[in-house]
Design a protein that fits this description.
Helix 3 runs antiparallel to helix 8 and helix 8 packs across helix 9. The chain has two domains: about 210 residues, Vaccinia Virus protein VP39 (Rossmann fold); about 50 residues. The chain has about 280 residues and is α/β, with parallel strands linked by helices. The chain starts with a strand and ends with a strand. Strand 7 and strand 8 form a beta hairpin. It is built from ten helices and ten strands.
Length: about 280
């Protein structure tokens, strides 16, 4: 893996697709990037619960007949939640493996349509009152990311668009190699939204992601130590998560914030929700 500090390097979309097809055998945990550190289901559920509180609040005005679009739906966790609440739900993903997992999860849900394709070009009919874009812009070059935001503004001209994107505290970082991704700062995402003629209505730090990223960083550190170097990831990730969860007010909230307050870049990655609307 190499790192570029600007967006001069273009992502290899074929490598991006290959990564997600290979990860699809662990579709549910891979959707939350919990598979490589062996994090338990409880960790994923904890993150999802905290994220759901934000999405519930921002979609509170949507009625039961609303149409909702889940872009980059992965294994269908959000699609399933929306299907229980809204009249029509469309999930889009480019990965055949991820979409197969979503179809298994959503079997029998008559108000759900799952579509395989590129979110930039796939045919999507009708207008949407709510859109969730959960961690897809980071796998797109800037021009394509802005183009997708423009398209979402057209699909939801009177709706609410929620972004959930991982990034860094300042600037841009492009990772190349087998896992290709662009980590952008919150300011970069706000600038991209403005370029796409979308208003930033609200921004909120993703606490669920922050808790998971602390755990990921500590698992990676532990597995470099001789006692754990040859251990299975789950043998480290499971017990560590249970300890952190039991001491959460200190280990997952106070300590990371104190480290950040003194200017240390740890954990390296951040994540934010952005609520966008079309219009001036």
């Amino acid at each position: 893996m190499s790192i570029c500090r600007s967006e001069g390097h273009r992502l290899d979309y074929e490598l991006v697709r290959s990564f997600w097809e290979e990860a699809a055998h662990e579709a549910e945990s891979a959707s939350y990037m919990a598979h490589e550190q062996g994090l338990p289901r409880g960790c994923v559920e904890h993150r999802f619960a905290l994220e759901r509180a934000v999405v519930d609040r921002w979609f509170a005005g949507l009625g039961p007949t609303a149409s909702v679009l889940d872009v980059g739906c992965g294994a269908g966790a959000w699609t399933e939640l929306f299907a229980q609440r809204y009249g029509r739900v469309v999930g889009v993903d480019a990965s055949a493996g991820m979409l197969a997992a979503a179809r298994r999860r959503l079997a029998g849900q008559g108000n759900v349509e799952l579509v395989r394709g590129d979110a930039l070009t796939v045919v999507l009919n009708g207008e949407f009152q709510g859109v969730l874009l959960g961690g897809l812009l980071m796998y797109l070059d800037r021009a394509d990311a802005v183009a997708l935001l423009v398209r979402l503004g057209q699909l939801a001209p009177r709706g609410r668009i929620i972004l959930r994107e991982s990034g860094i505290r300042s600037g841009v970082e492009v990772q190349t190699g087998t896992y290709q991704v662009v980590y952008r700062s919150l300011q970069e995402y706000e600038a991209m939204a403005a370029e796409a003629a979308l208003r930033v209505v609200a921004v909120e730090r993703n606490r669920g992601y922050a808790h998971m990223e602390v755990t990921v960083a500590l698992v990676n550190l532990a597995r470099r130590l001789p006692p754990f170097a040859r251990s299975d990831a789950a043998a480290v990730g499971g017990p560590l998560w249970r300890f952190l969860r039991a001491t959460a007010p200190v280990s997952l909230e106070l300590v990371p914030r104190a480290i950040e307050a003194v200017g240390l870049d740890w954990p390296h990655l951040t994540n934010h929700f952005l609520l966008l609307e079309a219009g001036p």
